[in-house]
Amino acid sequence: MADMNHLVMLHGMTGTSSKMRPLAESLAPHNWGVVCPEGTYVHPRSGRAWWVREELIEAVTPADQILISMKSLEQSLPEGKLIVGGFSQGGAIASAMLETSIEDRIVGLVLLATMTVRGEQLRKILGSIRPRSVVWMHGERDHIVNIDDGVKLASIFEDAGWNVVHLRHGKGHMVDLSQKDSLIDAIRRMSEDD
After folding, report:
1. Among 66, 90, 94, 99, which residue's beta carbon has the most beta carbons within 10 A?
2. Would you write out the chain's pLDDT as a tens digit for each of its 194 residues?
3. Burial, 16: exposed, middle or buried (Cβ in 10 Å; 0-12, 13-18, 19+)?
4. How far apart (Å, rounded) are the C-alpha atoms in residues 77 and 80?
5. In a domain, 1, yes or no
6. Which of 193, 192, 185 is nearest to 162 (CA)?
């Protein structure tokens, strides 16, 4: 039996798997499964995170926490093709997953209101792997992840020859549901490309 393909969506800081799942299910291509992993770390305010401030976890820097989260995902994601995406902090981890052994199974990325936290490593890996597609969404009034940082992330992919669908909006740190059909269409095309 062939492996099932999956849309993997990673929540942002203070989010949870259960909060991300309804959006992920609404975006998933026909006949694709949905995986919404839980962030590695408990956030002190609420929910989970893929990394937290250094003073909250003694002896483990945020950079090391990111690597731990990446390794955990690398070992736990299902077989088959993957479209990997995330919101905010989850999107930063999603793009970093290209540095792992699952890179060759990733057929596209969904980057929502996010930036890179491993820019140098991302540029390096993009220079040595085949280009794919990214759908990028960011709000001009985002006060948590500045849109300039989001644009820099999209540019890193474009400079490496990746096809980037831009879904820019005038709102804040959020998914613009008025562009949801465009988001769904971009993800569907990714699922058919490979």
Report:
1. 90
2. 467 999 999 999 999 999 999 999 999 999 999 999 999 999 888 999 999 876 666 667 888 999 999 999 999 999 999 999 999 999 999 999 999 999 999 999 999 999 999 999 999 999 999 999 999 999 999 999 999 999 999 999 999 999 999 999 999 999 999 999 999 999 999 999 85
3. middle
4. 9
5. no
6. 193
Residue 58 lies in a domain: yes
* CA–CA–CA angle 74, 23, 26 (5° rounding): 105
Rounded-to-integer distance, Cα 139 and Cα 86, Å = 15
Look up the CATH number of the domain holding residue 104. Answer: 3.40.50.1820
Tell me if 90 is assigned to some domain: yes
**Structural contact between residues 176 and 139, judged by C-beta atoms closer than 8 angstroms:** yes
